[in-house]
Write a structure and sequence with these properties.
Jelly Rolls, 3 helices, 9-stranded antiparallel sheet, Immunoglobulin-like, 38% strand, 781 residues, mainly beta, single chain
Length: 781
């Protein structure tokens, strides 16, 4: 069994409530028609800032540092001019030499703040404001400020913009500046080896008063520092960067030292930092502290090296410890905490190992990236704030906040596909854009007076839980409302079943979406569907048995270890520990139960071995809210241990997508674009023909064809059919195959959820047969 779940993660349940009479005790679709529900106006999953950028001035080059005080945002970087919102590059430019100030509320340029910074290769890379808000500390690469000599460090009055007498000299680039809580000491980090002509290896401290006299604080590091943060109680100074040792002790990229002596703080053990220098090189790019927790962002060099962020508890009574880690790949550059959410700037391209995350997906330019995300402070799981930038290198480089707004800096030239260079502001409140309507629903009617409506959910960049009002032609009000949680990369497929309709008439259906504030236009109308006047001739079980499968496990036994075969072949299965028999099954009204699998060891395997079929179909019903994936059914060469040969399998990725795969000359797979971990029963069928030819491999979900492709014959070996789990090592669908963590290979090889009505056929079922099987279950009509 595979065990790769990361420390501190808790399951993030993705639920889509289904407003159907069959699934909500005491309710009915007819009742919903009589008193249609209103669009839900609440969404606990919403972040607290908009995904829509507020109008603000912009820069003509990269912003590397941000600080704010008294309603003013200070930005530093490599820019030489700024311009109004919406103006293209080169239009209306106002000179600003590497440092500018904007209104936090309006984004407008503060014209009275205009220091002149110069040098051979000038740039501002560090900014900090004193605790009293009176002084702006500036660091980077420069030798003059307003004509006065300053070696990479300077201080300006926030009231007048005038240069102060504070002039310590750093002999090398300054990357980070952090005052202590009292504002009396200024900690400095960078790539320098001297501070005020005294030896300082990448970090040092000076006083805030006068000219900034050198302090004895002198930790010894062996490489550059990129971030410094001081705990609110002034008990520790946290440092992050490219180093691998502090004071001669191995401590890769992040650690803590005493604020007075500079000695290593024993509370920060080497095992806190979740990456390993011998196998990977990871550097810390940002540290922010909120309360008693430090949030730390990393950039890895090399395929699969740690690129995510992690949280460290700084409790003095319990000792420091790793609280959680988020393993998204894509070089985390900047972090900010705003009202209980952690905001992250990166170029995240693979969050397959982050609950709520997404696998790597190729596009025309390489891979799909998400430059802005938010995360739970509790466990690091991804939220629903997903605006976009087009950062040309690694992603947004700097974040700041005044407690209600996010100030963003970087090398981007667009935000949410609109021109905006270098700097942006995201204010409080939800996005002002309406949700997009879903595509036209698919509607079927296979039982008397019943219409089944199916559609794929949509997502918005700042609200996770959306409401979907369903309209039937001839009615002005919605017949029902369903809700679902979605991300741009994880869109559930929703179902609604309306009963009590008069047989004979034809109806169309439409859907509109609400995020609690705004409502979309209606979707395109479905194709007209004529309401059925008779029920399917046979039950689901009769339909499957008469389809002549090789075996059919209902998995409805309520005790014992035998999973009985409902065909005449007596190909029974064996229940292993980790299964719970007698849970609610997928066929309403039948009284049939199913089996729950615990996602760790739960398994049903065939008692007898067989030769892997060359041509086959696999059929099953499943229900889950897992965010760690797992195998639903597959063929492997071992009964209970992880197989060494395994394929002919249907498994779920962490985000809820399904994969059908076989091993031929290479891995042949079909992935679903949508997700199915919404807590509802779903029907999956995979077919494969050894005859080859075009489209000899197919995947269906809920009676609909998801995809087809052409594949070579699958390899032959002796083994066992297994339901609930088996090996998935190597099923990494990353086309580059160089990511050491894997991308679409799920965290867990074992499935957490319910499974019932598993059948395997010795032939490839046709699309008509799949549709007939699905129609025979009351869920589908």
């Amino acid at each position: 069994m595979k065990a790769k779940i990361l420390l501190g993660f808790t399951a993030l349940v993705v639920a889509a409530a289904m407003a159907t009479g069959m699934q909500i005790p005491g309710a009915s679709a007819a009742a919903a028609s009589a008193a249609p529900a209103q669009l839900d106006s609440s969404s606990a999953s919403s972040p607290n800032i908009s995904a829509q950028a507020s109008p603000s001035w912009q820069t003509n080059n990269t912003v590397w540092a941000i600080a704010q005080a008294k309603g003013v945002v200070y930005v530093g970087g490599q820019f030489t001019s700024v311009r109004r919102p919406g103006d293209p590059l080169g239009t209306g430019e106002v000179t600003r030499s590497y440092l500018a100030a904007f209104s936090a509320a309006t984004g407008a340029l503060i014209t009275s703040f205009d220091p002149t910074i110069s040098g051979s290769t000038p740039g501002v890379y560090a900014l900090a404001v004193s605790p009293d808000g009176q002084t702006l500390y500036v660091g980077g690469l420069f030798n003059k400020v307003d004509g006065s000599y300053r070696d990479n460090l300077a201080a300006l009055s926030t009231s007048t913009g005038a240069l102060t007498g504070w002039d310590p000299a750093a002999y090398g680039k300054v990357n980070s500046i952090a005052p202590n809580p009292a504002g009396t000491q200024i900690y400095i980090g960078g790539s320098f080896n001297q501070l005020d002509q005294a030896s300082r290896t990448y970090v040092g401290a000076v006083s805030a008063s006068g000219s900034g006299s050198l302090l004895p604080w002198a930790p010894v590091l062996n490489n550059a520092v990129t971030s410094i943060a001081v705990t609110p109680d002034d008990s520790q100074v946290l440092v992050g960067g490219y180093f691998q040792a502090i004071n001669g002790v191995t401590q890769n990229a992040a650690g803590a030292v005493d604020p007075v002596t500079g000695t290593t703080t024993e509370r920060w053990g080497a095992n806190i930092v979740p990456f390993d220098p011998p196998s990977c090189t990871s550097a810390v790019k940002d540290i922010v502290i909120s309360g008693s927790t430090a949030y730390i962002g990393a950039e890895g060099t090399g395929g699969g090296c740690f690129d995510g962020d992690f949280a460290v508890s700084l409790s003095l009574t319990r000792g420091d410890q790793l609280a959680w880690q988020n393993a998204c790949l894509g070089a985390t550059q900047a972090l900010a905490v705003i009202n209980g959410w952690l905001y992250k700037g990166s170029h995240a391209h693979d969050c397959a190992y982050a609950p709520g995350g997404f696998p790597q997906v190729p596009d025309a330019s390489g891979v799909v990236t998400h430059h802005l995300l938010d995360q739970s402070l509790t466990n690091g799981t991804l939220g629903h704030w997903t605006p976009g930038t087009n950062a040309t290198l690694l992603g947004p480089r700097a974040m700041g906040t005044d407690g209600s707004r996010l100030f963003l800096g970087g090398d981007f030239t667009t935000v949410n596909n609109a021109p905006q260079q270098g700097f942006a502001i995201f204010g409080p409140g939800p996005d002002i854009a309406k949700p997009s309507p879903p595509a036209a629903p698919t509607v079927t009617s296979t039982s008397v007076g019943v219409a089944s409506v199916t559609f794929t959910a949509v997502s918005t960049p700042d609200v996770g839980t959306l409401s979907y009002a369903i309209y039937r032609s001839g009615r002005g009000a919605p017949v029902a409302t369903v809700t679902a949680t979605s991300w741009p990369w994880a869109l559930p497929v929703l179902h609604y079943r309306e009963t009590g309709l008069r047989p004979g008439p034809a109806y169309t259906f439409q859907v509109r979406v609400s995020d609690g504030t705004r409502v979309s236009a209606k979707s395109p109308a479905s194709a007209p569907v004529t309401i059925a006047s008779k029920n399917p001739a046979h039950t689901y079980q009769w339909t499957v048995v008469h389809g002549k499968p090789s075996f059919y496990w209902l998995l409805d036994q309520r005790s014992g270890r035998v999973a009985a075969d409902s065909t005449s072949h007596h190909f029974n299965g064996v229940y292993e520990p980790g299964t719970t028999q007698g849970v609610a099954g997928p066929v309403p009204g039948s009284g049939q139960s199913a089996t729950a699998f615990n996602g760790v060891s739960g398994l049903v395997y065939s008692a007898a071995s067989v030769t892997s079929p060359a041509t086959f179909s696999i059929e099953a019903w499943f229900r889950t809210t897992t965010d760690t994936g797992g195998k639903i059914i597959g063929f492997g060469n071992r009964r209970t241990r992880e197989s060494s040969r395994y394929d002919r399998q249907i498994y779920m990725m962490n985000d809820g997508q399904l994969v059908f795969g076989v091993q031929s000359t290479s891995l042949e797979t079909i992935e679903t674009p949508d997700v199915y971990n919404d807590g509802q029963w779903h029907y999956v069928v995979a077919t494969f023909s050894s005859a080859g030819g075009p489209d000899n491999m197919s995947l269906y979900v809920d009676g609909r064809l998801i995809g087809r492709q052409t594949a070579a014959p699958a390899g032959s070996y002796t083994g066992y059919w297994r339901v609930g789990g088996d090996n998935l090592a190597g099923w990494n669908l990353d086309p580059w195959k160089h990511n050491s963590q894997g991308t679409t290979e799920p965290i867990s090889y074992f499935f957490s959820g319910s499974i019932g009505d598993v059948a395997v056929y010795p032939r490839a079922l046709s699309a008509a047969q799949v549709a007939a099987h699905y129609a025979a279950n009351a869920l589908s009509h």
